[in-house]
Amino acid sequence: MGHLAKDGYVLEHDPEQFKGEAVIINTCGFIGDAKQESIDVILEALEAKTEGDVKKVFVMGCLAQRYKTELGNEMPDVDGFFGLGENDLMLAELKSKPYQYIPGERVLTTPKHFAWLKIAEGCDRKCSFCAIPLIRGKHISRSIEEIVEEAKMLASQGVKELILISQDLTYYGIDLYKEQRLSELVEALCKIEEIHWIRLHYLFPTSFPNRLLEVMAANPKVCRYIDIPLQHINTEILRSMKRGVTREETLALMHRFREVLPDAAIRTTLIVGYPGEGETEFEELLKFVEQEHFDRLGVFAYSPEEETGAYPLGGPIPEEVKQERISRIMELQEGISIELNQAKTGKIFEVLIDRKEGDYWVARTQYDSPEIDNEVLIEVEGTKLKQGNFYRVKIARAEAFDLYAEVVKEKK
């Protein structure tokens, strides 16, 4: 998008409405639900093309990488499918000059006060359920210098919260520096004065870097937020998933988190319905959720993916059983979330204002990532707040996934 903007194109990022000379759809091909969502959006864009609202529809990203031939046969009205690393081919279709990447030269699709910052691409893990390494290839780290340069550019444009992402943050640096270097990267980013929050997404449990917790504890800019997809707790299931970790090691890691960062919010994701997960294994997972009291939790139904290690195992667990297990975990988690949120009532937190929606300002604490976690709602009436600013608020009441608050004092 940054390249196209520099080349004179007028860009809009609006997934709800299709108009203009061309629509470019960036797709996901990770699991069944994501594939279906991508296909639905492509069909909507093609309908807009039929109605004359757009002239051309281009599809790029993981789904195009993985199923280009099949998609071309099923959707002949798409003007072009482009896999990973085929930016130049797509730009040629748009009559734009060859692609040139410049760190930080990008168009934000988020509000200008926060930005996602990708630090690596690809994955070297061998998780049996996951197609990402097949789609995106081996892990490739960007250099610390390049990442810091982009972060400084983002900060100069008004970004106050950096959200670090990759398929596996904890692996960062091994290919480039022959050792884990996430801790050093975070320390370098903390030195950027304009950046107020640094959030880490997608930490892997195996070989978790101990020093990272010390860096998080020592730097108030690093959000007390640990996003770590554990997927399961039963050792045999974890072994079949090729996660490289056991039940005992997982419990020890959770203990370490709470010992070093007792105030941190822990977010995880789980998979139910993986081959071999009987009622006994599921009850073990359910008890684990009850015992650990995760601050944030998501659950996915296992989806057999072609060419992955688990694909030959088939899908022996019926879909209705998977959905019932998801419901049981999420019902339990809702009760946990209510309990944890109600404990915040009367306490004061720093929040970042994301947007105004209806009668409320919608904000977040450092314990919440945008779009997926809890929100703090502040009545618009009687307040003079500003999107992208930080405020101190007092929690007045709490629901399962929302907190209602009153402003105590503006911070910055």
Structure description:
- This protein has 412 residues and is of the alpha/beta class.
- It has three domains: 2-93, 3-Layer(aba) Sandwich (Rossmann fold); 114-342, pyruvate-formate lyase- activating enzyme (Alpha-Beta Horseshoe), CATH 3.80.30.20; 348-410, Nucleic acid-binding proteins (OB fold (Dihydrolipoamide Acetyltransferase, E2P)).
- It is built from 13 helices and 16 strands.
- The longest helix has 24 residues, at 319-342.
- The protein is globular.
- The two termini are 31 Å apart.
- The model has no long low-confidence stretch (mean pLDDT 93).
Superfamily at the CATH H level of the largest domain? Answer: tm_1862 like domain
Helix content: 25-40%
N- to C-terminal separation? 31 Å
Level-2 CATH architecture of the largest domain: Alpha-Beta Horseshoe
Strand order of the largest sheet: 12-13-14-16-15
DSSP summary: helix tally: 13
Largest sheet: 5 strands, mixed, barrel
Q: Report the sheet-strand fraction.
A: 15-25%
Q: Tell me the name of the CATH class of the largest domain.
A: Alpha Beta
* Whole-number tally of structural domains: 3
Helix/strand order: HEHEHEHEEHEHEHHEHEHHEHEHEEEEE
- Principal-axes shape call: globular
The CATH topology of the largest domain is given as pyruvate-formate lyase- activating enzyme
| Number of strand segments | 16
Low-confidence stretches: none
Q: Which class do the helix and strand fractions yield? A: alpha/beta
Mean pLDDT: 93
Q: Indicate the radius of gyration in whole angstroms.
A: 22 Å
